[in-house]
Amino acid sequence: MRLVSEKKFLTIDDGIELDCGSRLAPLTIAYETLGELSPARDNAVLVCHALSGDSHVAGFFPDDPEDARPGWWDIMVGPGRPIDTGRYFVICSNVIGGCQGSTGPSSENPATGRPYGLDFPVVTIHDMVRVQKRLIDHLGIKRLLAVVGGSLGGMQALEWSLTYPDMMDCAIPLATTMRHSALAIAFNEIARQAIMADPAWRRGDYYGAATPATGLAVARMIGHVTYLSDTALRQKFGRRLQNRQDFSFDFGVDFQVESYLRYQGSKFVNRFDANSFLYITKAADYFDICQRHGQGSGVKAFSKARTRYLVVSFTSDWLYPTAEAKEMVKAMKKNTLEVSFCEIKADCGHDAFLLPNPRLAELVAGFLDSVAKERGKQK
């Protein structure tokens, strides 16, 4: 039986005052829910998506028979899956600044009647989380069982645990970091420059005209390389040629890895907005819980936490390496927080949290089960 999903929308007329000082109002947040909220409203799990994700975390849309693709984390969310929709009420929303239903740069600016473009204010992970909090309030949920996410979603889970420490039982940040390294910022900036160098970008004012498809495709290619690993690329492609026995001696596609990256870039252009890419990557670069919550100290930042954590890293993730996860865990433990940590062996790089992995599935399922049972004992 297929899990049925439905996109819903919440409009917040008064909006919120953003970290940049601007007020974004009104604003709309797109979200989806799966499973049933318990009578005690104590089984809610918020799943936060990564850069290119959206609210469609699992299942299929019944009114779109041509869209056979399940949600972006269908391997983890659903009946009998690690985040079991037979037990938990799962919520996933599209971040503000995005382009899949929540207010972002492609949305209509009420002051002009035209898309915001670069008039859209710069948003932060903290802003995204505060909007999610408004959604949780709207759903009548006083306390979340868990906030779960990988990469940018993991940043949101960490921000939740420090901004609303008394609203959750546990956080599960996967393949993430307390703050972007210079390397991560550098790759994001190269990707942003690829978009802004495209003549069709027109300083963000391209709506209704040709989009900066070339720039966005190159930006996605850059990002995609950071999500993989040297081992994954060697195993999948090596130096194998694409449909020919020898070099072409031109600048077309010679290698299979070139073809793969061009395909990933062109596919991304069809579903994502270039300005949203700029805004979300900037939000990731600004993210620094040590500075926001601890005056530069991770230990001070986690002194605000009141939750249990499951922190997971992957051996081949060079974008957010295990060393950064261990630094985070050390800061948590210095505050005597209850922390479970696991580094999972995986060759596929940063994207490992999105791919089938029995060890990850076992860890998440077991941890959630433990937290849910502990909550039950406290009633």
Give keywords.
2 domains, 35% helix, single chain, two-stranded antiparallel sheet, 11 helices, alpha/beta, Rna Polymerase Sigma Factor, Chain: A, Rossmann fold, 379 residues
Could you explain the architecture of this structure?
By secondary structure, this protein is α/β, with parallel strands linked by helices. It folds into 2 domains: 8-181 and 289-377, Rossmann fold, CATH 3.40.50.1820; 185-281, Rna Polymerase Sigma Factor, Chain: A (Orthogonal Bundle). 35% of the residues lie in helices and 15% in strands. The strands form 3 sheets. It has an 8-stranded mixed beta sheet with strand order 1-4-8-5-9-10-11-12, with helices on both faces.
CATH names the topology of the largest domain as: Rossmann fold
Numbering strands along the chain, what is their spatial order in the largest sheet? 1-4-8-5-9-10-11-12
Rounded to the nearest angstrom, the distance between the terminal CA atoms is 34 Å
* Cα-atom radius of gyration: 21 Å
Tally of helical segments? 11
Shape: globular
Instruction: Extract low-pLDDT stretches.
Output: none
Class per helix and strand makeup? alpha/beta
